[in-house]
Fold this sequence. Notes:
By secondary structure, this protein is mostly helical.
Amino acid sequence: MKEQLRPEAARRERALVLLSLAAAILCAVLAFRFAVPLKGTEEQSLPDGQTLSAYTRVDLNTADLDALCTLPGVGESRARAIVAYRQQYGPFAQVADAADVPGLTEDIVASWAGQATVR
């Protein structure tokens, strides 16, 4: 009876090794297939020569509530305060002027670097 178990155990061991190898290959293939490409060091430009960031900046003088809420530290109440301040005092001359809006600090406005603009 022991002689019959040994060839069966060897066959099972071979099957387990083959299954493990197939699983490892499948994992490697899936990892390479769904890997996110590395970000290039240069910002890509669009056909008109502008960079994408030029189109994604929030203009503090024209932005609506939804656009203002995309800025770090700005929720609905701060966005409303920005719009109200803009309506009362006119357009911002520079992004740093937004620190004068009640509820905003210089640190919050500084965190908008590269994301907010005034035109």
